[in-house]
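Much of what follows relies on a compact textual record of a protein's fold. Think of the row as the fold of the chain written in a discrete alphabet. An example makes this concrete, so a full record is given next.


***
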Amino acid sequence: MSSITTNPIRRLARALVLTAGVLLAAPAPALAQAPAKAAPLSGEAAQVKKLLEQKFQGATVGSVTKSPYFGLYEVLFDEQLVYTDAKVSYVIVGNVYNPATKKNLTEAKLRELSRVAFDSLPLDLALKKVKGNGTRRLAIFSDADCPFCARLENELKSIDNVTIYTFLYPIDQLHPDAARKSRIIWCAPDKVKAWDAFFESGALPKNNGDCDTPLAATGQLGQKMRVTATPTLVFADGTVVPGALPAQRLEAEIVQGEAEAARLASTKK
């Protein structure tokens, strides 16, 4: 995975005694799955947020909720889920697992909190490829020179009945020629065919890449969504997953995303 990610927890390590590790939790109630907008905090949760912001000035403190684990609060802190007590005396960084199911509960909660509204994506800025009946949906932020994106393209060959929206997202710091290649591909008469051909053989269409392209807009979109790695995938339920997933995992994530998107849609009616 090509990434420009930095470690957001370094601020914590510099600021206070940090207890890091993995908490093994006994079977607990399943985490809520509905990606609701954060409600205004009140009471103790609001105090926890205030204390965190005071102790870590400049940090982004998102949702604060009481967890089912040891009376701790679950906090979205600089895009990472951490745990703290009501007085913010300690902050725990790590993953909570359910040993009965082997499920990473921290990861599941973080994925829930980081969802985006798939229908809000500007899909007209993406390459659109329909496979089979195209009923399922998948969006990808991809870099033409990213080796992990090439791996993902190979895995996608065995995935059917899906419409794939590919946002051209060159990471200049890592691949300085990717933007040029992306412009040339976008300016081809058949953009999807050109994209596929490039990953098959490295061949680029014969044009100067001087047509109007959405690269600036997709760059802004990625920054807004805090996409820092390619490939980054967005499934139908808005779940965002970075990395070149193998075909079996891709299929499972697509199925789960479609089912969750349908469930969420039904709850809004």
The chain has eight helices and 15 strands. The first helix runs from residue 10 to 15. Confidence is low (pLDDT under 50) at residues 6-38.
